[in-house]
Amino acid sequence: MRALRILLIVTIVLGGLFVIADRVAVGFAEDEAADRLKANENLSTTPDVSIKGFPFLTQVAGGELDEVQVGIKDYEADTSGAANGTDADVPAKIRIDNLTAQMRGVAFSGDYSSAKAATATGTATISYAELLKAAKAEPVDVATGVTAQVVGLSDGGNGKIKVEVEATVLGTKLPRPVSVLSSVSVKGDNVMVNADSLPNLGVQLAEDKVRLITDFQQKIDGLPGGIKLDKVEAAAKGVDIKVKGSDVSLVG
Question: What Pfam families would the database entry show (predicted)?
Answer without folding.
Answer: LmeA (PF11209)
